[in-house]
Amino acid sequence: MLKQRIFTAAVGVPLIIVAVWFGDPWFSLLITAVVLLGTFEFYRMSTDLTKRHPLTYFGLLWALVLALSPHYANILPIVMTAAVVISLVWLLRLSPQKEAFYDWAWLVAGVLYVGWMLSYWVNLRILEDGKGWVYLALLTTFANDTGAFFVGRAWGKHKLASAISPGKTWEGALGGFVSAIIVAVA
Q1: HEC sequence for the chain
Q2: What residue ranges of the chain have pLDDT lower than 50?
């Protein structure tokens, strides 16, 4: 597990640093890649949507549009309305109503949870001091992850949510929280 984390950091961190430093279009491309991978992973973990390829592709496209929405905020309401209506009507035509609504709810959840949430990284980077704010957010996130990993590994005894992630502990969560605060204040 530690080797995988080190490898990921060795490859990912320089890429992230460069993308944040140079801003658009590089940062938006990085966020786009993360949104596509994250949305697909969300669908894979939460439901059978990956077996229904057209639905998965529609969700990926919708999440992509949301992630890039800071660049064209003036047309976002029209795009969102169209996506909601088209996806629901399409699903209702293809599946029984109960199953269609269930699939649609997961489709929307993935789009909002990944695409919409990650669009705020683009919004943050666009700000005048955005580069610094993005670096601060990344550093505190990395500090939280690293602190949680090592504290949880050394002293973790009380499981946090074993059904979701068996290795997570309350001690690790507290270690991550304290690590993030230390980095943010420093």
Answers
A1: CHHHHHHHHHHHHHHHHHHHHHCCCHHHHHHHHHHHHHHHHHHHHHCCHHHCHHHHHHHHHHHHHHHCHHHHHHHHHHHHHHHHHHHHHHHHHHCCHHHHHHHHHHHHHHHHHHHHHHHHHHHHHHCCCHHHHHHHHHHHHHHHHHHHHHHHHHHCCCEEECCCEEEEEHHHHHHHHHHHHHHHHC
A2: none
